[in-house]
Design goal:
Distance between the termini: 128 Å
Helix content: over 70%
Structural class: mainly alpha
Number of strands: 0
Oligomer: single chain
Length: 88
């Protein structure tokens, strides 16, 4: 009977150590997962910023054409008004 109690005590000690090790590993995994989640959030934010920057770059030629068109229209209008003022 005494041997059975000793055997059980050894087994309980081993199980307690194993369960403590499992809890430690689970906590370490949770901390690692939180770090990965934070990095992923940072990457997603950066990706959104890059998308906005690319969209702005895509519209740059259109803005340049608008500026050129305004300059041409303004020059033509000024020329026509100047021509009429010089004639009359």
């Amino acid at each position: 009977m005494e041997q059975t109690v000793e055997t059980l005590a050894v087994r309980v000690d081993k199980l307690e150590k194993d369960s403590a090790d499992l809890i430690y590993r689970a906590n370490a995994a949770a901390v690692a997962q939180a770090a990965v989640d934070e990095k992923l959030d940072s990457v997603l934010i950066t990706l959104g910023e890059v998308k906005q920057a690319v969209a702005g770059l895509e519209q740059t030629p259109a803005r340049r054409l608008e500026v050129i068109a305004r300059a041409v229209i303004t020059a033509l209008a000024s020329g026509i008004i100047g021509f009429f003022l010089a004639k009359f």
